[in-house]
What does this fold into?
Amino acid sequence: MKRAAVRSLLLVGVVSVLAFLGSSGVAAESVKPGESVHVYDDPAWAAQHGKVVFSHDEHRELFGQEKLDCQPCHMTQPPLFPMRRKPDEPRKAVTMAEMAQGQSCGACHNGKTEMNGKVAASVADVKACGDCHKK
It folds into this structure.
């Protein structure tokens, strides 16, 4: 009886680890809390439009948090930004039109979402392009 219980616990542990790694069973790029993330991986696109880098630290400060809450961006269903991806899987560049419809960054950067008393700039505001696109 004792062996059956140990086997059951072991099976639950293995299944939990596989679920954590994702359905592919491969852990993707590791980003530590507070690290910046390149929003897309296409150098030609970046050269034309400017490199966009998401700063976890900057958003943590804007939200007035000591430790950034992962829930709003990574743990919704479906997640705005999946936490894990395959190491060789490039990030999809999201168009400004898609963001203006509430996808990706546009889910919060819509000119209405308030962060710690400040309204997030809208992705549709052409005066704010340089806030994200750095050449």
